[in-house]
Write a structure and sequence with these properties.
This protein has about 100 residues and is mostly beta strands. The protein is built from no helices and five strands. A five-stranded antiparallel beta sheet has the order 4-3-2-1-5, with no helix packed on it.
Length: about 100
């Protein structure tokens, strides 16, 4: 089945917050975010973040049910890559330290 998905498929690299419930002294505390990679259909965007969905109803891909959604704050996004264009060619606006794959 080949559904016409109207959204761009993107790969984003982003820094995640994390916490730990164990007791530890300040000199042993690690101070760095976890780096994550997420692939999904870019279905919504606002001034603060992007909403990705990894599952879309093929019978109604534009307005139907979507699953495995994830909201990522733009200030946490390090890089992005459009894997497949959608109807909109608008780029995600955020800080980009380096394009994905430019290591």
């Amino acid at each position: 089945m080949s559904a016409k998905i109207p959204f761009p498929l993107v790969l984003i690299e982003w820094e995640d917050h994390w916490g730990d419930g164990k007791w530890v002294s300040p000199d042993k505390m690690e101070m760095k975010p976890e780096l994550c990679l997420t692939v999904g259909w870019l279905v919504k965007e606002d001034e603060k973040g992007v909403m990705l969905a990894s599952c879309i109803d093929p019978k109604d891909p534009e307005t139907g049910a979507m699953g495995s959604t994830q909201y990522v704050v733009k200030s946490c996004i390090v890089s992005q890559k459009v894997l497949r264009k959608g109807k909109s060619t608008k780029a995600i606006v955020h800080r980009v330290e380096r394009p994905l794959g430019s290591e």
